[in-house]
Design a protein that fits this description.
By secondary structure, the protein is α/β, with parallel strands linked by helices. It folds into 2 domains: 145 residues, Aspartate Aminotransferase, domain 1 (Alpha-Beta Complex); 239 residues, Type I PLP-dependent aspartate aminotransferase-like (Major domain) (Aspartate Aminotransferase, domain 2), CATH 3.40.640.10. The protein is built from 13 helices and 14 strands. Strand 10 and strand 11 form a beta hairpin. Bound molecules: 4'-deoxy-4'-aminopyridoxal-5'-phosphate and glutamic acid. The site of 4'-deoxy-4'-aminopyridoxal-5'-phosphate has 13 residues, from helix 5.
């Protein structure tokens, strides 16, 4: 809501649609309604015991004080090892900054790299917060639209067409939130061949879903030698280790960018939570096979939800190769009246589903695609089945 006593900056900012929908679902649940929350992307698993034990150990070892702003040396060493082990990337300690979630890593990057009016390329659909993180730093989001027909991936020509002398940054996630699409090495190389012609563009590669990948291959933009110095690799433990509330994210970056993020963070929040940092050392030292049971479960749920969605009239869905979302195109319903209710947008449709079935999803508009809704399947199988059954019953009757 607009309040003239507040800054233009915050007045112009959108509320995070994922968090808003989750809050609304929570509120309805508290009122006694039967709500199934498929809006928020957070694993329903608990934190693995070996990570919990490391946190308890850190408390008992009396970790309590401010950590270095950019993270404990032990954690940076674990991150350095992780980048090498999983991505073949060499990042030294002075190229790594630990933050309070990957969200803060992204916010730092926007603050230190963007000037007023700089354009930020967002292959769409994109993660909900990219646009506002860029805007609040003075950037102008420029969407590059991809659709379900191209598996929600942009082509090199799309990228070339969007670049202007004002382009400063491109942010993308692979595996992608919300589409689940994964860019192959070949596809990334083709995008890199365009980007390499524009030395002022910094690429932010958000790899937070790296391990939740069913296609088998994860490639990092920074692995291309010619892109290494102009790419920042963003990652974190929220998704892979079910540590969303522990709030640890990190970057591997060119030194001058890491230094700037350190400076920015030092004035805004300081070092991330010290206990969570020590727990993250253990998480990252552990080979990713230790979390394979979660990935396997997400894969089974993906099959389940895709089969159930196929039975729902008017939904068109790609096969997500990673993350834990489906992003069906529901444009069939836009402009129609369902059960006497006029649906004029994906937002109307998501609200209609919530009110009539109690299933919370998120409108695709927030992700830069007004034809879609996002459904998180990081939920119990029984909830997925019940949710899809309620939606099918509602839409089959209309
Ligand atoms: N990037 C993407 C693509 C995400 O989905 C999320 C969601 N949490 C984040 C970044 C931020 O993660 P964190 O919990 O580490 O702040
Ligand atoms: N990243 C998750 C999502 O997209 C968590 C919510 C958020 O941080 O926006 O749902």
């Amino acid at each position: 809501m607009m309040n003239t006593n507040l800054s233009d900056r915050v007045n112009q900012m959108a509320t995070s649609a994922t968090l808003a929908m989750a809050a609304k679902a929570r509120e309805l649940k508290e009122q006694g309604q039967s709500i199934i929350g498929l809006s928020l992307g957070e694993p329903d698993f608990t934190v693995p015991d070996f990570v919990k034990d490391a946190a308890i150990q850190a408390i008992n070892d009396n970790y309590h004080a401010y950590s270095p702003v950019d993270g404990y040396p032990a954690l940076k060493k674990a991150i350095q090892h992780k980048f090498k082990r999983d991505n073949g990337l060499d990042y030294g300690p002075d190229q790594i900054v630990v933050s309070t979630g990957a969200k803060q890593s992204l916010a730092n990057l926007a603050q230190v790299l963007l000037n007023e009016g700089d354009e930020v390329l967002l292959p769409a659909p994109y993660w909900v917060s990219y646009a506002d993180i860029a805007k609040v730093a003075g950037g102008i989001p420029v969407e590059i639209q991809a659709s379900i027909d191209t598996d929600f991936k942009i082509t090199p020509q799309d990228l070339e067409n969007a670049i202007t002398p004002k382009t400063k940054m491109m942010i993308y996630s692979s595996p992608c939130n919300p589409s689940g699409s994964v860019y192959s090495k070949k596809e990334l190389r083709a995008l890199a061949d365009v980007l390499i012609k524009y030395p002022d563009i910094v690429v932010i590669s958000d790899e937070i879903y790296e391990h939740i990948n069913f296609s088998g291959g994860h490639y990092s933009m920074a692995q291309f030698e010619d892109m290494y110095e102009r790419t920042v690799t963003v990652n974190g433990v929220s998704k892979a280790f079910a540590m969303t509330g522990w709030r640890i994210g990190y970057i591997g970056a060119p030194k001058y960018i890491a230094r700037a993020c350190n400076k920015m963070q030092g004035q805004v929040t300081s070092g991330a939570n010290c206990i969570a940092q020590m727990a993250t050392v253990k998480a990252l030292e552990t080979p990713p096979q230790a979390i394979q049971y979660m990935v396997d479960a997400f894969k089974e749920r993906r099959t389940l939800i895709l089969n159930l969605l196929a039975e729902i009239p008017g939904f068109k869905t790609n096969i997500p190769e990673g993350a834990f979302y489906v992003f069906p195109d529901i444009s069939y319903y836009i402009g129609r009246s369902i059960s006497g209710r006029q649906i004029n947008s994906a937002g109307d449709f998501a609200l209609f589903l919530l009110e009539k079935t109690g299933v919370a999803t998120v409108t695709g508009e927030a992700f830069g695609d007004p034809n879609c809704i996002r459904i998180s399947y990081a939920a119990a199988e029984s909830d997925i089945k019940e949710a899809m059954s309620r939606i099918k019953t509602l839409l089959s009757a209309s």
